Amino acid sequence: MNSPSQQNPDAPAITPEHSLDLTGLKCPLPVLKARRQINSMAAGEILQVMADDPAAPLDFDHFCHTNGHQLVETQIAETVFTFIIRVGAGGD
C-alpha cells in the first residue's frame, strides 16, 4: 500500500475544486460523505477533506487505493488531518 505523501514545500500549490470539513465525524462517516461528493465530481478534479477521526488516514488511503482515486497529499495540524484527493477516471 502506498503511503500518503506529506506536504512538499517545493511542489506547486494544488487548488481544490471542492472542500469538505468533516471534523467531529467518526468512521465511517468521513469516507461516506467524501464518496458522495466524489460521485458528483469529474475525473481529475481535486477534493480537500478535513477530518479529525484518528482512523481517517488509514480509511482514506484504503478508500482511494480501492476506488481508483489518488491521495495526493496528507497534512496534519494538531488533531486535524487534511487530505487532498484527485478523483480517478473510474469513479467509485
Q: Indicate the overall shape.
A: globular
The major sheet is characterized as: 4 strands, mixed
Q: List low-pLDDT spans.
A: 1-5
- Secondary structure tally: strands: 4
SSE arrangement, N to C: EHEHEE
Distance between the termini: 19 Å
What is the CATH C-level name? Alpha Beta
Strand content: 25-35%
Strand order of the largest sheet: 1-2-4-3
Classification by helices and strands: alpha+beta
**In the residues, how many domains can be counted?**
1
Report the C-alpha radius of gyration, rounded: 12 Å
Q: What CATH architecture label applies?
A: 2-Layer Sandwich
Q: What is the arithmetic mean of pLDDT?
A: 89
The CATH topology is what?
Translation Initiation Factor IF3
Number of discrete helical segments: 2
Helix content: 10-25%
CATH homologous superfamily title: TusA-like domain
Structure report:
The protein has 2 helices and 4 strands, in the order βαβαββ. It is an alpha+beta fold. The protein has a single domain, classed as TusA-like domain (Translation Initiation Factor IF3). A 4-stranded mixed sheet has the order 1-2-4-3, with helices on one face. The longest helix has 12 residues, at 56-67. It is globular and about 30 Å long.
Topology:
Blueprint: E1 18-21, H1 29-38, E2 46-51, H2 56-67, E3 70-77, E4 80-86
Parallel strand pairs: 1-2
Antiparallel strand pairs: 2-4, 3-4
